[in-house]
Amino acid sequence: MGFVFRPFSRRQRQLLNWWRPGSGHEHQRFVLADGAIRSGKTIAMILSFFLWSQTCHEGREFIVAGVTSGALKRNVLLPLFSMLDALGIPYEWKRGEGMVVIGTNRYFLFGADKDNAQDKLQGMTAAGAYADEAALFPRSFIDQMIGRCSVEGSRIFMNCNPNGAYHYIKTDFIDRAEEIGLYRLHFTMDDNLTLSPEIRESYARSFAGVFYRQYILGEWVSAEGAVYPMWDDRENTFALEESPEAAVPLRHMRRFCAVDYGTANPCVFLDVRDDGRTFWIVNEYYWDSAARKRQKTDAEYADDLTAFLGGDRNAQIIVDPSAASFKAELRNRGFRLQDARNEVREGIATTAVLIGNRQVRAERNRCPCLLREIHGYLWDSKARDRGEERPVKDHDHAMDALRYLCHTRTTRFRRAGGHDA
Ligand SMILES: Nc1ncnc2c1ncn2[C@@H]1O[C@H](COP(=O)(O)OP(=O)(O)OP(=O)(O)O)[C@@H](O)[C@H]1O
Ligand SMILES: [Mg+2]
Description:
39% of the residues lie in helices and 19% in strands.
């Protein structure tokens, strides 16, 4: 179905027309649109890139890149095709060749995550490049992409959400805009005229801490100190012994068990009840083979899990997708498994919101390792100075299990503070 065009905001129109003679920016080589999520960057930028490439070049090759090929298709190609349909412009998507043909130009498609993506880039002589969510690309891909744009009059279009203050897009592009010829357009949610106040509010409620500042306020700020500063020892815990009546409803809730598997590293199970709003972590299992000086086999771990869940085979086991041998063992024993979603950054963002909303609560006396880890779970300051955002990989096993639980089982609705059906 064709795209329904709605009025473009002033910022979107600046992005659409910057390359046209008389805009005052037509001599610049780069354009970067950064800022809040859902602020209208991608829609305006793909249209701008398409119009520019069709107006200024014939018979040329272009680079069109996303973080992964799936993200590229979802966020860029599908809206682009629906806009082309609405405008009555024909295109041909040659999937096998990873290419789209529009008019006399050819647009080569890339997922920046692929190891061989740069090899494919290497042979190209491009007249322009488009990078969606550029801050999530490896730097080497961006450098190579720029290097390939050697045709006279080539231009580079990039958009992204802000990241850490030391990220290369901030330090080497935004901060050096004048020197390198970059036109920067900063977007806020006000720049998308199609967002209703309700939708905006629900997006705002879906982020907490540093992610709120980056994704909602659009600031380039680094994550520092505690990963989960919103954790509160009173509000995020509960005690079964102190209120035995509270234990009764738990029995009727859905049960999950989140697993961070490890053999040389610690192995963690979290026993969780879900009332549709809150995850109640009632118990933990923690086996540290290094401290105990004994590694366990998959069969031993499966025995431990069976005992830990009191023989319950109906609990859904959320497990690290890479733990192939342990998964096979559990499946043989009749457990119900679900692969955990394990994107670190997105998972931490989800977990942070749930903690802030008190939608995660741990049993005060039965989860000592989880409670210890949550206070010691810090952003890695050395990685930060290199422009990367990630937690210190140390005492993070209950943290990984917690993240798997939250990120795998949370709907967008619950994340905005609602109650799942
Ligand atoms: N001019 C417009 N006409 C119609 N719809 C629009 C227009 N501008 C924005 N939108 C709508 O707003 C949504 C968000 O816009 P877009 O995807 O461009 O945001 P974004 O800034 O790239 O967000 P993110 O940072 O999450 O990728 C689009 O999916 C589209 O539905
Ligand atoms: Mg976008």
